[in-house]
Specification:
- There is one protein chain.
- With 247 residues, the chain is α/β, with parallel strands linked by helices.
- The protein has a single domain, classed as TIM Barrel, CATH 3.20.20.
- An 8-stranded parallel β-barrel has the order 1-2-3-4-5-6-7-8, surrounded by 4 helices.
- Helix 1 packs parallel to helix 2.
- The structure holds 1,3-dihydroxyacetonephosphate.
- The site of 1,3-dihydroxyacetonephosphate (13P) has 14 residues, from strand 8.
């Protein structure tokens, strides 16, 4: 039985003081021991938010990291730094990074490996554009993304990863995928994992849905056989996030 994961992706929102206030406002209301609750926060908010949620069930994730250990990479953050700051998860390959910062499948594969090397749990994102969906190539496109992301990663390591399926056309648009669309792709990703690894590994890896998740659509999405929770953007910045966690 896969344990549900409800992760918030704060994106580029919340100054450190705003972040601490939001964490304090939410922490009592997301105290659900039946699910993994993760706040993925901007790098500058990590240290104060880790402090603010100490002693709660909330885990802290980063939104990005770099592929090298240390050195002359001005502006970047290493896996080591994240771990030392108290981070347990890291979002890798969000469509915003793929599209706005030209992050390639090969580069993201390196990030995933580096995260695993440091025992950070990567939340590996995938998802198609509206054009790809309309062309009917969603499942093959995502299969390629998953294959590239997991290239050279053992099944043992793959078990310590989470996948987030986020159709790009559903992100921040208020246009949520139907439960059938979301379940179809998440089931297909599980098949992809079975092909790469084996049935047992595929059965254990958690696959989340992201894209306009809110308090009114969460329960139905999370009830699908292959959807193990959500990666929530806009609604993770509001009191509503507690209703999603307690769906
Ligand atoms: P929204 O929930 O705002 O659509 O964002 C989804 C997302 O990109 C989470 O990573």
């Amino acid at each position: 039985m896969r344990r549900k994961v409800i992760a918030g992706n704060w994106k580029m929102n919340m100054t450190p003081s705003e972040a601490v206030k939001l964490a304090n406002d939410l922490k009592g209301n997301v105290a659900n021991d039946n699910v993994d609750v993760i706040f993925c926060v901007p790098a500058i908010d990590i240290v104060p938010v880790v402090e603010a949620v100490k002693g709660t069930n909330i885990k802290i994730g980063a939104e990005n990291m770099y592929i090298e250990e240390k050195g002359a990479y001005t502006g970047e953050i290493s896996a080591n730094m994240l771990v030392d700051a108290g981070v347990s998860h890291v979002i890798i390959g969000h469509s915003e990074r793929r599209q706005l910062f030209n992050e390639s499948d090969e580069f993201l594969n390196k990030k995933i490996k580096k995260a695993i090397e440091h025992k950070l749990i990567p939340i590996v994102c995938c998802g198609e554009t509206l054009e790809q969906r309309e062309e009917g190539i969603t499942l093959t496109f995502i299969k390629d993304q998953i294959k590239a992301a997991y290239e050279g990663i053992s099944s043992e390591d793959a078990l310590n990863t989470i996948i987030a399926y986020e159709p790009i056309w559903a992100i921040g648009t208020g246009k949520v995928a139907t439960t059938e669309q979301a379940e179809e792709v998440c089931a297909s990703i599980r098949k992809n994992l079975e092909e790469i690894y084996d049935a047992k590994t595929a059965e254990e890896i958690r696959i989340l849905y992201g894209g306009s998740v809110n308090a009114s659509n969460a329960a139905e999405l999370f009830a699908q056989n292959n959807i193990d929770g959500g990666l929530v953007g806009g609604a993770s910045l509001k009191p509503e996030f507690a209703n999603i966690v307690n769906y």
